[in-house]
Amino acid sequence: MNQITKYRREFHRYAETGWNEVRTSARIAEILAGLGAKDIHVGRNAVNIQTVKSPIDLSEKTRRANMERAISQGADPVLVRSTEGYPGVVAVIDTGHPGPVSALRFDIDCLPYDEKDADGSRAFSEDFSSVNPGCVHACGHDGHTAIGLGLASDIIKHPDDYRGVIKLLFQPAEETFFGAASIVDKGFLDDVDHFIAVHLALSAQNEPLPSGAIACGINDFLSVRQLDVTFHGRAAHPCGAAQEGRNALLAACSAALSLHAIAPHEKGLTRVNVGMINGGLCANTIPPECSLRLEYRGQFPEISQYLKERVFDILGGTAKTYGLTYTFEDYGEVPAARSDSCLVEAVRQAASRIPWFNKIYAEGNLGGSDDASVMMNHVQQHGGKAVYIGIGTDISQPVHNPGFDFDEDCLEPSVSLLSLMLKDYL
Question: Where is the Peptidase M20 dimerisation domain (predicted)?
């Protein structure tokens, strides 16, 4: 088994959700230092903590618990303490040769549910399934982290093959809030000429990319905005003075149905989803409060604005219909993005030189969101170029399924691709 695969399995075994990736961060820093990296930023030196807001819990109690768990699971105590319980790692490698500033993003967080012990599950049969309850790498971020470390190894071992300054961004919290923005707000992308992100198990021509395939750029990013909404009603007995009650649970259910009935926009992709509803006290009391968590996504700014207007029309109209009020918390928007065509072509040329890539698509499908778009937009707004690459790999289940696994043979070719991009095409 090669070292990159070993990295992947280690991070899979010790999966950590967004803003809890303390062991992951400490181990990444330890591996980078062992390879010879000198300029390593960890924790609050890698991410801007002021960017992170509710509902993220970065209390001292939570951070201390994450640090204790990280040490108990084999992370270096000195490096764990250096994180102060904050995740994220940035390695800055100056090759010593004139050239551009390049940055590559590798997300490190997992998803918040248990791994599935299905028939034939390789993670269970080969003993690298997640040991942390409610934590599973079901979106390939363990593979992304391993690819980043494999690339770091090659750059550090062969500095004369590379040019310029290379920044490796091991980003927390892609699956939740503020991960990419916290690194952007720290200033690491202000001077970047070229930005690259990779993701395993995407699609092209609306079909999953198998092993050996690659999508050289992604352009169908959707912006995403998430809201926590609470309807405030009035409790009452459903048989005595029911007219005095204001049923917040019915309001939330009605709003959920109406939100899912928002008409799609003719200009591009639209998505609305109510993912959680929580409310009520008991069977014989009219629910005085009920909360729901929702998101809406649009391919272009005008679609996002259309969805925003319709969402708040529905929330306000529902509140008025049921005679109650509502409040909300807005976690901000992750924007849409597009890959620059010049870098898409560079990816195509590099992939054509690697025998493992036997099916090359110029454009692939994400059909969703990734906060790498925050980094892409920032670099492009500062005059740089950006690309988001889809790596093909045979999978056991779709991403975000607890039984997800991928063909580990994709890892080394992915490192080779990024290495070629940095050496010959940027």
Answer: 227-317
